[in-house]
Amino acid sequence: MTKAYWESKIFAIKEDDFLSFALEAFAFQKNNNPVYNRYLKETKQFEKNISEYYQFPTLPISFFKTHDVVTPKPNTESSSTHVFLSSGTTDSFNRSKHIVLDLSIYEKNIYNIFNKFYGPVNQYFFIGLLPNYLENKSSSLIHMVDKLIKQGRGGAFINELDEVIIKVNQLTEAHCKVVLFGVAYSLLDLAEYMQKNNVKFNNTENIIIVETGGMKGRRKEITKEELHLILQKQLNIDKLHSEYGMTELLSQAYSSECNKYLCPPQMKVFITELNDPFAIIKEPNKKGVINIIDLANIYSCSFIKTEDIGQINSDGTFSVNGRLDYSDLRGCNLLMDS
User: Which residues, in sequence order, are CB contacts of 218 under 8 Å at separation 6+?
Assistant: First the structure.
């Protein structure tokens, strides 16, 4: 299958087409991705019959730390390979590596997903309050926000809290729409700084604040609900938005209601039992391990078992409730010695 074929599927997918496209992606990846191929054979899932999206076997995300998870493109196609690395220690074994064979798919996906949830990118200025990510030059989140800045009306990455406030207020006072992406601990720093110095955002109706998760060891972990209550009160905003993405995914889910994420058309989430990676949880509101199908990952692996705990809600959204304890130790150890 050519790049044009996969792109025509990824960017034009409809709900009724999801399963058939996912089956095509599954066949392509199980036969051409050496890591996924062996994992399926070792777990006796290679010949699995699939009639529902939640039946797809998912690769434990820890393999992105230990292996090159790649589904090769046809030799006749040019490659624009890019490597994204997760944040973390300098020990490369503890950092996930996503080898992206076609960066244009990721970049087009960024714009399409944002447009779906918030309207045209070119209506907005973008500001990134992402200090720890800026230290990681291979961050997929930094790449995403940078592309939004360039495709939108402009913007910048700003680390100084007072400068963030000044810039946001300058833009909103000029009746510009602003999207502020911030890692959780930096948004808490910003909220406390504003409260301490008795300053506030003006024209908050023109501001969308999107938290991207992560205390990164800088603060005590708290629930999404606690985080949103604190930030909404201290930043004097009606609601806080969230983005759910990761190094290993080329798609993002967004939430405009506390911890209730919606997936774009090429992405689905299902839940498996905490102590049985192959047992599917079908009933809503029951916590388990988040599994993701991301069809934009056509040249890596579209079927991933994360190390996040979450649930599918009664309204079809999904929530993130925390991380697996000792997740690295609980991951499947197949292939670790290869």
Answer: 132, 185
Dist. CA 312–CA 45, nearest whole Å: 24
Backbone angles phi, psi at 80, to 5 degrees: -125, 65
In angstroms, the CA 98 to CA 75 distance is 20
For residue 67, what is the DSSP state? S
Among the listed residues 234, 311, 250, 259, the one whose alpha carbon sits nearest the alpha carbon of residue 103? 250
Q: Parallel, antiparallel, or unpaired for β 288-294 and 276-281?
A: unpaired
Residue with tokens 């973008």: 126
Out of 32-36, 140-144, 202-206, 218-222, pick the least confident: 218-222
The better pLDDT of the pair 238, 91 is held by 238
Higher pLDDT, 271 or 335: 271
- Using CA atoms, how far apart are residues 187 and 115, in angstroms rounded to an integer? 24
Rounded to the nearest 10 degrees, the angle between the axes of helix 184-196 and helix 224-235 is: 30
Tell me the pTM.
Answer: 0.92
User: What residues contact 162, with CB distance under 8 A and at least 6 apart?
Assistant: 193
Quote the radius of gyration of the chain (alpha carbons, Å).
20
Query: Considering only CA atoms, which of 156, 150, 157 is closest in space to residue 122?
Result: 150
Helix (H), strand (E) at residue 125: strand 124-129
Domains of the chain in sequence order: 3-97+267-330 (no CATH), 105-247 (3.40.50.980)
Per-residue pLDDT at 326: 52
Q: Where on the phi/psi map is residue 228: left (φ > 0), alpha (ψ -120 to 50), or beta?
A: alpha
Residue 121's SS3 state is helix
